[in-house]
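Instructor's aside before we start: the two examples that follow are unrelated to each other. I chose them only because their records fit on one page, so don't look for a connection. First example below.
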Amino acid sequence: NRMVNNTVNSFFIEIPHIHYNSSEFCMRVLFIDGNGHKDSVLYKGIEKCRDCLNDEQIDSDVISLKEDIHPCTACGKCIKKRRCIFSDAVNEVIDHSDQYDAFIVASDVFFSEPDKKVIEFMNRLFRCGNERMAHKAGAVMLYARSNSYKNAYSMLNDYFYQADMPVITSSDCFCIHEDDDTDMETMHKLA
């Protein structure tokens, strides 16, 4: 019995208590807004999330996909350069991905799929910079007018799974249906 206790106790390491100063240790989140319109319900959800994160002293930035995103042509040049040949928001996120600890992709849902430009963005981002995204948290925020959003939620989360990113989940998808208190509470839960 004494031998077992000594063996078990030898595995415990005493760790000193660490105090973090908010200026020294700060988490950063990047929102990728697939809608691109500041008056949209999706953007209101992003702002609600950002307010909640700010209350917890977590920095956040938003990149809006206002223009169409060029689809991946499978040219293979990104394999050597780790950048896309098309210079747009994809390369901007790749260049600054080391500054962020989490990524939240926000998209409208059309016919049970994410917005086309979000899909094109994610295809190129994870083809070029997959290893830079590994072990960073990922989440999906959707705006849908009906309950046909589960496929879109699954499609976008698959990018995170393939990049070895922990995915922030919920008992129900992080989906906004209307601009009401219930949906804004969902965004608070996501934050």
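Example two begins here.
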Amino acid sequence: NPNPNPNPNPDPDPDPNQYVWSWGEGHSEVVNQLPLTLRLQLSIVMNKRLFEKMPLFKDISELAILYILQKMKPGFHLPGQLIITEGKVGHALYFITRGKADIIRNGKVTSQLSDNDFFGERSLATGERTNASIRACVFTELMMLTRKDFDSVVALFPDVRQKVVESAAELHEKRQAKFREQLDRESAQVL
């Protein structure tokens, strides 16, 4: 049963995570009663596709990935709902398991994310403010790793922070190149 946050007077500058609807709460109690090894195997099976396609995890140890899997939380956002807001401190690292979301910079949609894309990594790893807003354009299922959980991962696996920073820089360059190509195409169409 999805339970929206029933806050009648929303904060004008809310924490985006307070509006995430959780769909796994009834199941987590059952899963938590399983032996640890079975819970880990279940996490691996449920998230295998996510980890296989993400460059973020290509050089991270299997043990670190298992720990990250235990910390990830499912959620979803409705069409039009902001997931992160440009210029704010990042609260989590997000992985799109299904859906689409727009990248918005300075009020303009610059690109789109979809299945197996991730975002929020740079702000989470470096502490910098987010450089774009991300808005769900369709019903979007996510897995997220909160700042608190990311910090617990880094405490046990210090190399993870650097690998996330490196992946974030690489991803940022790819997104910028894609955006420049899009601008060039739009300019060519105008001429």
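Confidence is low (pLDDT under 50) at residues 1-26.
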